[in-house]
Amino acid sequence: MQIRRSAPPxxxxxxxxxxxxxxxxxxxxxxxxxxxVARDLAARLNADGHVAYCRDAMWKRLGISxxxxxxxxxxxxxxxxxxxxxxxxxxxxxxxxxxxxxxTATIYAAVVPRAWxxxxxxxxxxxxxxxxxxxxxxxxxxxxxADARRRTRPARRRDTPSCNANxxxxxxxMRGKKNNTSAPHGARPRSRRRHDVPExxxxxxxxxxxxxxxxxxxxxxxxxxxxxxxxxxxxxxxPWIATGLSAADLAADLSLWHVSRRPASPAxxxxxxxxxxxxxxxxxxxxxxxxxxxxxxxxxxxFLAAMDTVRSRLTRLSPRVESEPDPPGFVxxxxxxxxxxxxxxxxxxxxxxxxxxxxxxxxxxxxRERAIW
Length: 373
Description:
This protein is α+β, with helices and mostly antiparallel strands. It contains 13 helices and eight strands. The longest helix has 20 residues, at about 330-350.
C-alpha cells in the first residue's frame, strides 16, 4: 500500500482521510470507536506528524478497554493511516542501580493512503512516506471547492417557535425636530434613583464627612456596633447627629440600649429605633370637642434667673470635659516602643536582691555581658 506523511502544510489530512476511509467501509471492523481513537491521535499530533501512543492513559481517557484500543489501533494501521516511527520496547532507560524503570515509548506517524488522494483528485509529488501534496486535478479542484464551502457554511439560525407570529413592539415618540426618541409613556415604571434618600438621612458632603468622623469615634467605644461598616454606621447615625448630639452623647446612649452582643446589622437597629422615636414624637390630632385649651403661661424673670443660677453652680461643681481626640497611630506606636524599651532597661538594671531565683540573676548577668554598650 502506497502512503505519504500528513505533516505540514496540511496537518488535518490525517483526520479527513480517516473519516473518508471509515465512511467508505474499507474495513468492516472500522466504526465510530475507530474514529474516536483517530480524533484523539489527531489532537496530539506534533509539527512532524508524530504522536506518542500512551496506551495506558489513552484507554482510560476514551472510556474504552485496553484490548479495544489495541484492536482499533491495528485497524488504523491496516487502513494505511498509522505507521511506526519508533517501536517501543521494555528495555529500561533509567541508569543501572537507580531502582527506577521506564521503557521506550511507541511513536506513531500519521499517514494517508494513496487511495484517498486518488478519490479526491490530489496531485502528489514524490514517492513513499516523504511524498508531498502539491495540487489538484480538474475533478479534484471542484471537489475541494465543494468541500471548503460545506465546511465554512454558517449554521442555519432558527428562531424559537411561537404561537404569535407578529410581536407587538411599542413605537417611539418623536418630539420636535431633535434627533432623539423616547419610549412611550407608561411603558415601564421609572426606577428610583440611588440619590433619592429619605429626608432625615439627607446630608451635604460636609455633613456626611462629619457623620463618618463621629461614627469612627463611636464604633470602638460601643461593642455591639463594631461589626458594622463605618459608612453604614455613619448613615444610620445622621438623624441623631442632626439633633445636636455629640459623639460622646451618642456613645453613652448606644451603650445603654439592650442589644445582643453581635447583631447581624447594627445600622438597621439604629434606623429602626429612630423610626420608633420619630413616630412617638409626632403630636396626636386634637379631638373635635370644640373646647379650646388655655394658652401656656411663659416663665417670669425670677424663674429664669433661678435656673441660670442653678446651671452656673452645676457647671462649677462638675465642669464639662471635652472628649480628647484619639492620637494618631504613629504616636501610639512610639509610646508602646518606649514603654517596652523602658521595661527592658529596668529588667537589665535589677540587682541580686531584686531577683527571686539564681537563674534570673544569671540571665541578668549574661544580658549585661552580651550587651554591646
